[in-house]
Amino acid sequence: MATQGTYPPTYNDDQQGFQPQYGQQQYGQQGYAQFTNVVTTTPGMGPTIMVSHVNDYMGLSIFTLLCCCLPLGIAAIVNSCEAQDANAQGDMVRAQAASGRARTLNFIALGLGIFSWIIGVILLVLMFTGVL
C-alpha cells in the first residue's frame, strides 16, 4: 500500500536542501550573469543604490579586430578596456561613456566588415565566371 506524502515534503535531519528525485541528477547553477539594481535603506542614512556593471563589449571588440576592421577594432578594444577599468573603480559615468563608444565602434567595424566580405565574394564570383 502506498502512503501519501505531506505537502510541503519533509526531509530527515541528515538531508540538507533540495534532494534530486526520480533518478534526476542535481546540477549546479549555470554561469549566466544576472545584473540587477538593488536599493537598500539604512536607518538615518537614506537609500543606498548599488548599480550593476556596464557591458564592456570586449568579446565583440576582439571579433571586430580579427574579422572585420583592424583600426576600428583596436579603437574598440581600447574603449572596452577603459570601460572595464571604470567598472572596477566604480565610476559608472565613465564606464557608460566608454561602453557607448566601444559599442558604436564595434557596430561600425561590423558593418564595414560585412560590406567588405560581400564585395569580396561578388568580385570573386565575377572573376571566376569570366566577367572581369
Euclidean distance between termini CA atoms: 85 Å
**Oligomer class:** single chain
Q: Give, in order, the helices and strands.
A: EEHHH
Bin the helical content: 40-55%
Radius of gyration: 26 Å
Number of strands: 2
Largest sheet: 2 strands, antiparallel
Going across the major beta sheet, what is the strand order?
1-2
Helix/sheet category: mainly alpha
Shape: flat
Ranges where pLDDT stays below 50 over 5 or more residues in a row are 29-35
- What proportion strand? 5-15%
Q: Compute the number of helices.
A: 3
Average pLDDT, all residues = 79
Describe the structure.
The chain is mostly helical and 132 residues long. Helix content is 52%, strand content 8%. It is built from three helices and two strands; from the N terminus they run ββααα. Strands 1-2 form a two-stranded antiparallel sheet. Strand 1 and strand 2 (46-50) form a beta hairpin. Helix 1 runs antiparallel to helix 2 and helix 1 (58-67) packs parallel to helix 3. The longest helix has 38 residues, at 92-129. Residues 29-35 have low confidence and may be disordered.
Key features of this structure:
132 residues; mainly alpha; 8% strand
SSE diagram, text form:
Layout: E1 38-42, E2 46-50, H1 58-67, H2 70-89, H3 92-129
Antiparallel strand pairs: 1-2
Helix pairs in contact: 1-2, 1-3, 2-3
